[in-house]
Amino acid sequence: CGEDTEKDIVTFTEFMRATKAPPQDPDIQSAFMSDINAGKALFNNMPGVAYSCSICHVPKMLTAPPCTLINGGTFRIPNSLGNKIIQPFSDFLLHDVGTGDGIVQNGGQLTRTKVRTPPLWGVRTRDRLMHDGESLTFRDAILRHDGEAAAVTTAFKALTEPQKRQLIM
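Given the sequence above, the corresponding structure tokens read:
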């Protein structure tokens, strides 16, 4: 595929700037580390269901290898973007979570009830949640998940209040 070019480096820099999540607050992290770790465990393994939040809100993913052709062969992954671990907390796929807006996406009529999983990185800096901005709290956003996410929402409802706070933290 070749060496990184200046254009590749600029492309990667622009990509990283556009997708960079705000840094975690080290003071909050150290003061609440046990709660944060408990919340991570719940995010990845919700009691009572075979899958959890992380099934769609994937914590980490690896970008395609360098030289991979994507977008119908119109873009070749440069070395600067290939094989990079990103932490978007999304699979970027379409799912029916009961809040679809009726807009048909690329994929036909069945997609009108689906929405693309939004990345959760930097979500603590947002004051409106979900694809439509209709949820004002994390609890409300979680409880609005239905359809494919109904089992996880039911499991969330069964958590203790301390566990719910840990998950939202």
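The chain has six helices and six strands. Try to locate this feature in the token string yourself.
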